Amino acid sequence: MNTAPKLATWLLTRLCSARHAESLIGDLHEQVAAGRNRWWYWRQVVIALALSAAQVVRENGLSFIGALAAGWLAMLAWFATNMWMTGSHVTAVNFVDDTLGVPSRHYSWMTIWFFTAALRLVCFALAGWLAVRIYRRHSYAVAIALIASAWLWKWVPWRMYRAFDDEILMLVHDVTGLGGLLLGAAWGIYQAKRRASRETRRSV
């Protein structure tokens, strides 16, 4: 007996309106039980999500775009800081040398590299949190849109000191970008659910 893909069903419940998702899932499950395959189910889910996204943008376009813009401002703030710290004027290196008394330029650049990597994670987490906080109506949708837009720009590239091998540098690049966005968005969604739960308890 065919079974509906759990991931596709989860996406429907999170990214479509509750009433529409519930009826659609019921219809799709009936079709799968009648013999439709998993690929057919996925195709219907993708179509439903595309239609739902178009409706969200049409009805709440300005707030949706505003949430994405706020997320991008946080990411670009990190980008500007990184470019300033690693510029040819080496102000940051001189500051590290003078303040921390680092014995060599290599260690100074390593210090800056670790700082910018940590700052990247924080700023990207802030970006995810801001987007979800501003656009609460469809928090999963705006989080996915922000992550997709950042991925298209390769997680906002950064100029860095070659502290490690290329493979490790790319891993840190991906983890700080994607990981930060996911952490921030997850925290924002968690806060929204806690707030909704408290309001429900008060109303009972």
List the helices and strands and how they pair.
Elements: H1 6-15, H2 18-33, H3 38-85, H4 91-100, H5 105-134, H6 139-152, H7 166-203
Helix pairs in contact: 1-2, 1-3, 3-5, 3-6, 4-5, 5-6, 5-7, 6-7
Summarize the structure.
The chain is mainly alpha-helical and about 200 residues long. The chain is built from 7 helices and no strands.
Which key features would you list for this structure?
single chain, 7 helices, elongated
What does this structure look like?
The protein is elongated. It has one domain. The chain has 7 helices and no strands. The protein has 204 residues and is an all-alpha fold. The protein is 81% helix and 0% strand. The mean pLDDT is 84. Helix 4 packs across helix 5 and helix 5 runs antiparallel to helix 6.
